[in-house]
Amino acid sequence: MTKAKVSATVDPDRLEMAKKLTGCENTSEVLDRGLRALIEDQLERAQADGYARLPQGDDAVRQVDSNVWADLPWDAE
Known about the structure:
Blueprint: H1 12-22, H2 27-53
């Protein structure tokens, strides 16, 4: 995987807490894990929103409307 160099200003206490909780010693790994978790959370929210817009019933598999579901990039990982 290619990496991009970034400059960020973060709360130092929050960064230290994240390092302690994750066992990560370097900031890059903490940020990578945080970004991964954020992306996963947002994709799950998008999926849940799709279910909320079209509640699932016994016949849901037969009546899937592709316009209702979020375009989730599961294969992009």
